[in-house]
Design brief:
Largest sheet: 8 strands, antiparallel
Shape: elongated
Strand content: 25-35%
CATH class of the largest domain: Mainly Beta
Radius of gyration: 20 Å
Helix content: 10-25%
Number of domains: 2
Number of strands: 14
CATH architecture of the largest domain: Distorted Sandwich
Structural class: alpha+beta
Low-confidence stretches: none
Number of helices: 3
Mean pLDDT: 89
Length: about 230
């Protein structure tokens, strides 16, 4: 299973620590008990770290209808909210599709559609449990301001959790993304939101409690402006 470069510090350090320890426990023959008894917990710990930073190869659906939005992350739909105004949509009404990511989910973020990065708004905050409704309002977050090819604005939002305290977003203003392209992650449990304009035109294809896969699950369809 490929591992993401976004976690090279963590899984790299785990490897540097685990390999010598496993060899130390397995190679000597003077232990009064089998060395694998000590080696197994170390190996399990390494696999746990590596599993969190796994980056599975995904076949992105092709030939989708215009305006199809793929899930920007793996996880469970925790909320679908309609708001009167949102900064990601230039202060206009929006629908917010929220995904909760547990520590067992793949944590790579992906682009829901072809788009261009217009900017980012990072806010410091608290680190409440990402499963609570309040966490989406007060936790550390990063809003990625995006635009469709026709210039209409939408966004994605990374929200940290109680354990997740490292938002990774290497995007730059003006950068273009393809549908399903990897673009960042949040380490150790978090929330990712997809924020779409014209909520009255958004055909939401998921419901609260549904499991979604980043770059694979169709979350919504928003016809291009003017259609």
């Amino acid at each position: 299973m490929p591992l993401t470069r976004y976690g090279i510090r963590e899984w790299g350090l785990a490897t540097v620590v685990a390999v010598p320890l496993i060899l130390l426990f397995v190679l000597p023959d003077w232990y009064p008990f089998p060395g694998w008894i000590l080696a197994v917990p170390v190996a399990v710990g390494w696999f746990a770290v590596a599993a969190f930073f796994r980056d599975p190869i995904r076949r992105i659906p092709r030939g989708l209808d215009a305006g199809t939005m793929l899930a920007p992350a793996d996880g469970v739909i925790s909320a679908i909210e309609h708001v009167d105004a949102h900064e990601a949509t230039d202060g206009k009404p929006a629908v917010v599709l929220r995904i909760f990511l547990s520590v067992l989910n793949v944590h790579i973020n992906r682009a829901p559609c072809a788009c261009t990065v217009q900017g980012m708004i990072y806010r410091k905050g608290r680190f409440l449990n990402a499963q609570t409704e309040e966490s989406a309002k007060v936790n550390e977050s990063n809003v990625i301001l995006l635009s469709f090819p026709d210039g209409e604005r939408f966004g994605m939002r990374q929200v940290s959790g109680m354990i997740a305290r490292c938002i990774v977003c290497p995007l730059q203003e003006g950068e273009t993304l393809e549908q399903g392209q990897r673009w960042g992650m949040i380490k150790f449990g978090s929330t990712t939101e997809l924020i779409l304009p014209r909520p009255d035109r958004v055909d939401v294809r998921i419901a609260v409690g549904d499991k979604v896969r980043g770059g694979r699950t169709i979350m919504a369809v928003l016809p291009p402006a003017g259609d």
